[in-house]
């Protein structure tokens, strides 16, 4: 498949980008300041009234993670929820792109120093500090990006899979068989390895994940795992077994999704795997008739399955030994599994259920959009992983959709869309045990880009260490001004003011 033309060099069009940035910055800062000032004058308003500087009620204090563990952070309430623009980056050279042939930009990550974006055949780091140059580093890759993972180590490293260029018609044309492990803060490539027997690994079936000390890749007809520190191969599988690794889910543990048999009669298994040896710890056999399986969480183990349908119909929870616990119906909910890239299986899909967040004891599900007059546009419901019973509900507001982002300790981080000049966008922390909502950040996205940035089907939305980051996954020219740069990434942080 085509990934669009390679990035253009920096040209005179940068002047137009600088002008656009200045206009956006002025408009965004003005909009947030006006809304926050009105809320303060009105006695705090609905955003500020629920805020406090306390930690979650059941917080156990910060957990010190080893450097090679997958990062888990607990967010603090900032001194002020008023947001300020931290960075914005425009992509150039998009005049030949179209909706049918975009420039793909998979992968968005953030640390306390940089926001990192994958685009075409390169990785770029952008400084968060307001007084720093916009671009911190660029890592040119040996081919286009094929697979990414949302996971990052505690010390700021992650991996991607790339597709080295090959002559048209050659046996390895389009093959994605190179793994690159790199440092997000510096852009330094730590190691690069060729995946063994990976001639059937393509952008449509390659899936990558991280767990403690291990990078794992599966492509349906093989799999491989590498040691993070050295890049040494730990184990691999190849075509030949009746059951093949289709994907892995990482994080606190490593789960393998295995397909047994051939289409249309594929049967699925989910295994917990020892990351250092590849040996199964336990196996859960998915019921016959399930057409697809997603792995939104490895620990606790949670599956989203499509039973008798092409779209997920149920969430299945397992215990620590792989035993069935309960089933949660997805009727009325939108798990957003496999919905990126218009439903195409690009860049790794089986861990990506953007409408599901899993905590230690609960799963949070996004409702299907409800446009009935007078009703909230949508909501998020907490379900107990052991019983499947509801355990709380976060109500949305008219014209302000909400999306679950991730866990922060035992609380859920939620993104709420803005409503023009009426209300800013927000990231809030929700405690389902007390139903307490705490605003962490208020900000306004550029009006012309709000629809794309605010849609998890179109953009990555991250909240990390007091900042919110948005990164588009597909880049297309503006037909009215095809030579102009297009806003690709934007971030906001707290203005740090005390009211």
Write the layout of secondary structure elements.
Blueprint: H1 14-41, H2 45-48, E1 83-91, E2 103-104, E3 108-110, E4 114-119, E5 122-127, E6 135-140, E7 144-148, E8 157-163, E9 178-183, E10 189-194, E11 207-211, E12 214-218, E13 222-227, E14 233-238, E15 243-249, E16 255-260, E17 267-273, E18 280-285, E19 290-298, E20 301-307, E21 314-318, E22 324-329, E23 356-358, E24 362-366, E25 379-384, E26 390-395, E27 402-408, E28 411-416, E29 425-431, E30 436-443, H3 450-453, E31 459-464, E32 467-472, E33 474-475, E34 486-494
Antiparallel strand pairs: 1-34, 2-33, 3-4, 4-5, 5-6, 7-8, 8-9, 9-10, 11-12, 12-13, 13-14, 15-16, 16-17, 17-18, 19-20, 20-21, 21-22, 23-24, 24-25, 25-26, 27-28, 28-29, 29-30, 31-32, 32-34
Textual characterization of the structure:
The chain is mainly beta and 499 residues long. The protein contains 3 helices and 34 strands. It has helices spanning 14-41, 45-48, 450-453, and strands at residues 83-91, 103-104, 108-110, 114-119, 122-127, 135-140, 144-148, 157-163, 178-183, 189-194, 207-211, 214-218, 222-227, 233-238, 243-249, 255-260, 267-273, 280-285, 290-298, 301-307, 314-318, 324-329, 356-358, 362-366, 379-384, 390-395, 402-408, 411-416, 425-431, 436-443, 459-464, 467-472, 474-475, 486-494. A 4-stranded antiparallel sheet has the order 1-34-32-31, with helices on one face. A 4-stranded antiparallel sheet has the order 3-4-5-6, with no helix packed on it. Strands 7-8-9-10 form a 4-stranded antiparallel sheet, with no helix packed on it. The longest helix has 28 residues, at 14-41. It is globular and about 60 Å long. The protein starts with 13 loop residues before the first helix and ends in a 5-residue tail after the last strand. The model is unreliable at 1-19 and 29-60 (pLDDT under 50).
